[in-house]
Amino acid sequence: MAVILETDNLKKNYFSKQALRGVSLKLESGRILGLMGPNGSGKTTFLKLIAGLQKPTGGKFTVFGQRAGFETKKHVSFLPDRNTLYPWMSSLDAIDFYDDFFDDFDREKALDMLDFMKLKKDDRVKTMSKGMIEKLNLTLTFSRKAKLFLLDEPLGGVDPVARERIVSTIIKTWTEDSAIIISTHLVNDVEHIFNDVAFIGDGELILTGDAETLRTERGKSIDQLYIQIFSDK
Amino acid sequence: MSEFDPNIPIYIQIMNGIKQDIVSGKVRPGDRLSSVRELAEALSVNPNTVQRVYQELEREGISETRRGTGTYILETPELIPRLKAEMAKSILRKFIDGMRSLGLSNRDIASAIDKEIAGGTN
Q1: What is the pLDDT of residues A202-211, one digit of tens each?
Q2: CA separation for the pair A79, A69 (Å, rounded)
């Protein structure tokens, strides 16, 4: 298995606030990592650094063996935790936009997925519900032939049916030679699709490991483990 | 999604489900099992977990993988009786452990079973 992502003591400060206090982890191809922690624990900051949207204050990371920079951005497809599409755009406009922007965009796949998500080409962002916007953004993110997919809270504010659809899209998109990181605090809905889990609190990793091993060792679901770790913090 | 028991590895729970389907006749010897991705999607579990399920089933002599076409349930006549015996044993073990934890002796357990089979106390 190839190493897709390796971070070494990654740090980020926002002025005097330390958002990440040194995170080191390794992710291999074919794995799905669940990055879990309460609001403000550093999940989004971590993903933004890996996506190349912000510069780390300290530490380093490699994607697919390459040092962070312009080249690594090509391998990383990022789903932000809030909508970044313009309200006037239709689904098709958004697909055109991505198609123009990314060399590795698979238009065919995007149109297929749009259909699976039950979205229409001429639906406009401003008339879409939160769940629809999330599904459209996910469609765009997953239609790139990237090595590393970063999904920041893909399930937040989405109803259970749409949630299930999103989960099955994640499984559909999964391949042996790419890796996926999903940040979430809705652990229960997705814990069974994780191979690896990382609990993050206050900018530090509290616990990492293989999901199945942790469940067996602790005799708890990942959801129960989450509650145990964060309830006394 | 969350119907899994957190105390038992998920791959074992999925294996048990498939064995159950074989014994009950929902899946017949010679049938092709769903592809890894299909089953992973249906159960909302990681595809690696399903891969492990299929590996273990093969190791236990329940299925075989035919190159390029998929995973099939073996057509051996002893398969269903063997699975039945294996599952009956595990149900019994669980039952006996439960009875013992209530402080019942072997004799108490046996007579409770006899009584229940003979006509039921309820």
Answers
A1: 999 999 999 9
A2: 19
In this structure, are residues A61 and A68 in contact, taking their beta carbons and an 8 Å threshold?
A: yes
Look at the block and give the residue holding tokens 């809905």: A189
**Minimal Cα distance from A219: which residue of B?**
B7
- Which positions 42-81 of B are in contact with A (Cβ < 8 Å)? 43-49
Closest to A180 measured CA to CA, from A151, A144, A208: A151
Write the DSSP assignment of A187-215 as a string of letters: HHHHGGG-SEEEEEETTEEEEEEEHHHHH
Look up residue B87 and give its two tokens: 């599952």
Q: End-to-end CA distance of chain A: give it in Å, rounded.
A: 36
Of B1, B7, B37, the CB nearest to A192: B1
Residue pairs spanning A and B at CB distance below 8 A: 61
Nearest to B37 among A171, A190, A195 (CB): A171
Which residues in chain A touch residue B10, judged by CB atoms under 8 angstroms apart? Answer: 192, 212, 215
Give chain A's largest Cα–Cα span: 51
Which residues of chain A lie closer than 8 angstroms to B7, CB-CB? 215, 219
Q: What is the pLDDT of residues A139-171, one digit of tens each?
A: 999 999 999 999 999 988 788 888 888 999 999
**What is the value of ipTM here, to two decimals?**
0.76
pTM: 0.85
Sign of the alpha-carbon torsion through B61, B65, B71, B74: negative
Residue B1 has pLDDT above 50, yes or no: no
Which of A30, A171, A221 is nearest residue B6 as measured by Cβ atoms?
A221
Residue A125 in tokens: 């962002």
